[in-house]
Design a protein that fits this description.
It contains 17 helices and eleven strands. The protein is of the alpha/beta class. The longest helix is centred in the middle third of the chain and has 17 residues, at about 165-180.
């Protein structure tokens, strides 16, 4: 990563700093700050949406500050309901630990391991007693917790809210007390939780943390925030061709945010990119190719970025079928009475679920050779050829 100027650290990929004046004073003091980032290992993979905040941590590490990464091995078994309309399933300790290890392996692709302190919540919550829990809950009122948007909406809609979920913001806030964080980082959907941490620190006689709030990166659909469950995500560990192709699929309105939040392209160039897009003098296609290449190079290497661009131009733009694609042997017809195309797509990793496969078929996004597949046909109706899902996924039927 390129060392950015102070103004870029404060502005690029930042939605709000609470309280900005206090944060700048701490930044100018020369004293290293403890930068808190907690993660909920309910899922193992990091995508570009997470990378917005992680890149900000790395930028501040380059200025001499220390990241304190909190592995939410305790609260992950509760599940943060932020932005959700229903109670989350609780995870087992084994599931949490497995996800945490995968997460850490990916986390250090962005953040400097040598300038990071890793802490497990179980260090302080393991010995927690009922008396500790009651003391913690006494610091806040029910009205304060129900003020959070998702709780408020679910309560007014008569949807259930588990007591464990009401505890989540308090437990996350206590993390800030336990590690004495100076700054906490989170997406805009975490604003309430970050402020609860600031308030709890103050009630405990500590200097209240600053809250560094990052914008939520829209996914490849250009509408909703990037999310694996919405299948609009770009994983940092995906193959180069997939990362490149997914970036190329974003709407033109996301070109500037992707440059601004996911790359170190100088701000002066960003101004030119915005101007060119607004005036129509710049090529959106060329700008996407450049940002796609930068992102692939960051998580793989320059050769991978070049190969991914060549693959995209040859297959997506040129319409060629790649030389090396997975092969699926069609079963004898006697065995295909109940097997549908959606099952084949899911089983071969072409879609994340049979439901997604059916949706893509209905949208006309699945082709067999040059013909669009119009309905979820049985496998007995398939013939040898090349199945194509969207623009980047292929399967050769033999």
């Amino acid at each position: 990563m390129t060392l950015l100027g102070r103004n870029d650290v404060l502005r690029r990929g930042v939605e709000e700093i609470i309280v900005e004046k206090e944060f700048i004073e701490r930044l100018d003091s020369g004293k290293p700050m403890r930068l808190k980032m907690g993660f909920d290992p309910s899922a193992p993979d990091i995508h570009m949406g997470h990378a917005v905040g992680l890149r900000k941590l790395r930028q501040l590490q380059e200025l001499g500050h220390k990241v304190v990464l909190i592995v939410g091995d305790w609260t992950a078994q509760i599940g943060d309901p932020s932005g959700r309309s229903q109670t989350r399933t609780m995870l087992s300790a084994d599931e949490v630990n497995a996800n945490a290890q995968t997460y850490l392996d990916q986390f250090f692709k962005i953040v400097d391991r040598d300038r990071t302190e890793i802490r497990l919540q179980s260090e302080w919550f393991g010995p927690f007693t009922l008396a500790n829990v009651i003391e913690l809950t006494s610091k806040f009122t029910v009205a304060q917790i129900l003020a959070r948007d998702d709780f408020s909406k679910r309560y007014s809609d008569n949807h259930p809210i588990a007591i464990t979920e009401l505890l989540y913001p308090l437990l996350q806030a206590y993390d800030s007390v336990a590690i004495e964080s100076d700054v906490e980082f989170g997406g805009s959907d975490q604003r309430f939780n970050l402020l609860v941490g600031r308030e709890l620190q103050q009630s405990e006689g500590l200097t209240p943390q600053q809250c560094f709030i990052m914008p939520l990166l829209p996914g490849t659909d250009g509408v909703q925030k990037m999310s694996k469950s919405l299948d609009n995500y770009i994983g940092i560990e995906e193959p180069p061709n997939d990362i490149y192709g997914k970036v190329m699929s974003i709407p033109d309105t996301l070109i500037v945010p992707y440059y601004e939040w996911l790359t170190d392209v100088p701000t002066s160039e960003l101004t030119e990119i915005k101007s060119d897009l607004d005036s129509g003098s710049g090529s959106a296609m060329d700008l996407k190719k450049r940002v796609a290449g930068i992102i692939v190079e960051e998580y793989h290497d320059l050769d991978s970025a070049s190969s991914a661009r060549e693959f995209f131009e040859r297959t997506v733009q040129g319409g060629e079928v790649p030389d090396e694609i997975p092969i699926y042997a069609l079963p004898p017809q006697v065995l295909t009475t109940t097997l549908r195309l959606s099952n084949i797509l899911q089983e071969n990793g072409m879609t994340s679920s049979a439901g997604e496969a059916r949706r893509l078929i209905d949208q006309g996004a699945v082709r067999l050779d040059d013909e669009t597949v119009t309905h979820n046909i049985s496998v007995s109706e398939l013939k040898p050829g090349v199945l194509r899902v969207g623009r980047r996924r292929y399967l050769r039927l033999v």
